[in-house]
Specification:
The model has no long low-confidence stretch (mean pLDDT 89). The strands form two sheets. Strands 6-5-4-3-8-9-10-11-7 form a nine-stranded antiparallel beta sheet, covered by helices on one side. A two-stranded antiparallel sheet has the order 1-2. It has two domains: 37 residues, no CATH class; 116 residues, Dna Ligase, domain 1. It contains two helices and eleven strands. β9 and β10 form a beta hairpin. By secondary structure, it is α+β, with helices and mostly antiparallel strands.
Length: 162
């Protein structure tokens, strides 16, 4: 629902008084506090990512050695699948947060991401019914987000076999 036009004011600390907000700026003002909450699931420093472990039916380990990605000992010719997975993870937004999963939800895949200090920085569980586990907390994401992460996961696994 759009804001009412005209006579919308905000207090200006600089001027020390209320000032009118121009009508062209009104569509940019959030209608509800929920609109300004950051719902990003994961924020990665892509330059620091050194290792990615994908676990599904198979386990595949990808390592970054001086800017070159390897699958096991094999050098990847094209790094786009690695970049796609990282970008997809960073684009995920959660809908709701939970401390427990429903009983009928099961783990399907996992993604471990390690930074340069070799410790596991993120251990991400991908569950049925659009749930993602991160540490001791579970998040529900939308169907499109789960499809994107599964597609990126599959693309990276496929690049390791080529």
């Amino acid at each position: 629902m759009p804001h009412a036009q005209g006579n919308i004011c905000a207090y200006s600390d600089v001027l020390g008084e209320f000032v009118a907000i121009h009508d062209s700026l009104l569509p940019l003002i959030p209608h509800d506090p929920i609109e300004i909450i950051d719902r990003s699931l994961i924020i990665l420093n892509t330059e620091m990512v050194e290792k990615i472990v994908l676990t599904g039916k198979d386990i595949q380990v990808f390592t970054n050695k001086a800017g070159t990605w390897f699958s096991g000992e094999k050098r990847l010719e094209d790094f786009s699948a690695v970049k796609s997975l990282i970008e997809t993870l960073q684009s995920l937004e959660y809908l709701d947060e939970y401390l427990r999963l429903p009983e009928d939800v099961h783990r399907e895949r996992s993604i471990e991401i390690s930074y340069q200090d070799s410790s596991v920085f993120f251990d991400i569980g991908l569950y049925s019914q659009y749930y993602v586990g991160l540490g001791d907390t579970y998040y529900q994401i939308n169907e499109g987000g789960m499809k994107m992460i599964n597609d990126s996961f599959d693309m990276l696994m496929k690049s390791a076999r080529e």
